[in-house]
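Q:
Got a chain?
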Amino acid sequence: MDRDRVGISKQELVSMLEEEELRSAVLVVLANKQDIPGCMSISEVANALGLATIKNRRYQIFRTSALKGEGLNEAMDWLTNTLTGAK
């Protein structure tokens, strides 16, 4: 996540989560570019986005590198399992 734009990302996330049609949606956060030295850690991303304040919603954050294909399968598996279990 881009440290310079994390505030904008948080504002957008909060706005989206307040939408009525998304009230029951699960949330997957992909902390991408984890292959870059000095990138934000998972805990830094979670803190910057205020994930600990999310109540009444299932969410998970994943460390990913789209360039290397790391973490994407795990994220999609979690999403699939969560949605399948929610039915």
In short: The helical segments are 6-17, 42-49, 72-86. Strands lie at 27-31, 59-63.
